[in-house]
């Protein structure tokens, strides 16, 4: 699976398929898992804590503000869809290029 298959860019929004591994001893982006970006988080999957950590980790990795990243689907699943809001299409393209690097493509 290519890195570009992990995300789509629609104008100023980037949609990222994410596979989450909660309660990890090594938090961070761990490459690609199937058709999703594998993200390890230390937080347990309780009360949305893992979702919050996924958003913080993606925001830091993509160099955007935490409020720009939301989990839009899969709130109670390990397979999630995250959305990153960007101010313009050029910024979205630049952040997408960072995603390619994170996914190892």
Features:
about 100 residues, alpha+beta, Conserved Hypothetical Protein Mth637, Chain: A, 6-stranded mixed sheet
Structural write-up:
Strands 1, 2, 3, 4, 5 and 6 form a six-stranded mixed beta sheet that branches. This protein is α+β, with helices and mostly antiparallel strands. It is built from two helices and six strands. The mean pLDDT is 92. It has a single domain (3-102), classed as YggU-like (Conserved Hypothetical Protein Mth637, Chain: A). The termini are close together.
Structural domain tally:
1
Distance between the termini: 9 Å
**CATH topology, anyone?**
Conserved Hypothetical Protein Mth637, Chain: A
Helix content: 25-40%
Strand content: 25-35%
Q: Number of helix segments?
A: 2
Mean pLDDT: 92
How does the SSE layout of this entry go?
Elements: E1 7-10, E2 13-21, E3 28-33, E4 36-40, H1 49-62, E5 69-73, E6 79-85, H2 89-102
Please summarize what this structure is:
With 105 residues, this protein is of the alpha+beta class. The protein has one domain (3-102): Conserved Hypothetical Protein Mth637, Chain: A (2-Layer Sandwich). It is built from 2 helices and 6 strands, in the order ββββαββα.
